[in-house]
Amino acid sequence: MQSKIQNDQPRFSTFDPRYFSQIIVTSEPITDDWRHWIADNKYAGMDDRLIVQQLVANGISPSAARLEVSSANQNPYFQAGHKFVQALRKLESHANILADLAALSPHSLIIERKPNISRADFLENYYAKNIPLILTDITQNWSALSRWNPEYLKNKYGRIEIEVQSDRNSDRLYEIDIEKHRRKMLMADYADAVMTGGATNNYYMVANNGNIFKTALSGLLEDIEMFPEYLDSQKLNNTVFFWFGPEGTITPLHHDPMNLLFVQVYGRKTWKMIPPYYTHMLYNYRGVFSEVDCENPDYEKYPSFQKVPIIEFTLNPGEAIFIPVGWWHAVKSLDISISMSFSNLAFPNQYEWLIPQVML
Predict the structure, then answer these.
(1) Model confidence over 10-42: pLDDT tens digits?
(2) Could you tell me if 153 and 205 are in contact, meaning their C-beta atoms sit under 8 angstroms apart?
């Protein structure tokens, strides 16, 4: 937005005083969008002089810019908001201290791998402390490890109508807009697409499709074991989830509202995890998702993300990871992949979350 000079009169020499009397300078109006911008930057701590300079650079007259910025300080709505911003900054400073303390440990960016542990050890040292853990030898009793692959799913469950998430490439917010991407098809057709379509993120059978309890795919539960040390086998309704998709599928950066145990059955997935005390640097404006694309982060748009350490690892067939509530993660399939996830942990697993819904 640039300032406009109206001068329909004959041109005069710039040395002629009549020239100045014929110029009418009109400035851009201060819209509500600009007022939102002013408030955002004042809450962020930008100096009033810099805010005024930016407004003037975008065509707003200096006097109007100064008046608007000055009046914002006296606005009771702005003052009330300022109180909550200060409280939020206190929480953010606490999170920064936790991050600084964690960085003192050489193990802070390493997730332990253990073959298995006792129920008491799991509860005391991982679940209660909100620490992730990879269990490398937990699926010894799963016949699914030797049975499950795309051909098996096609041959045994091919005539079942399943739901998948489709046309993901058409919408960057495919997880948030999940209702727009639901598609019904036969398992045989979907398995063929996975086997022949190559690497893609365009279609994926995800947890939200709920196929385990909506269809005869519940028969897959006969091929697995509910780990008695960690899971409650009496709580199966809407707590067990099935994932199946091609190489290249991506689950964008998010956190779950509860603790999860995720098991990799077929293929490999690469994981990126971030502790919850970096939440204020992850641009979480909607739901449980970050605005940042972990695959191609835009540091100019999301500068704070440059400060965030990422724990990256590969989950192999037969391995499971405990994902503590609130831990951020993004996942990409390195191969055709089949996975299971469980929220029926044997310990309290319901939490009250205040989920942001910021209009961008």
Answers:
(1) 333 334 444 333 434 457 889 999 999 999 899
(2) no
As a whole number of angstroms, the distance between CA 114 and CA 231 comes to 17
Residues whose CB is less than 8 angstroms from the CB of residue 63 and which lie 6 or more positions away in sequence, other chains included: none
Instruction: Give the position of tokens 């999170």.
Output: 95
Identify whether the C-beta of residue 322 lies closer than 8 Å to the C-beta of residue 119. Answer: no
Residue with tokens 């309290």: 348
Q: Which long-range contacts (CB under 8 A, 24 or more apart) does 217-221 make?
A: 217/157, 217/160, 217/162, 217/187, 217/242, 219/156, 219/157, 220/144, 220/148, 220/157
The per-residue pLDDT for 188 is: 98
SS3 category, 173: coil
Whether residue 314 contacts residue 268, with contact meaning beta carbons closer than 8 Å, is answered with: yes
Low-confidence ranges of the chain (pLDDT < 50): 1-25
Say how many C-beta atoms besides its own lie within 10 A of residue 13's C-beta.
8
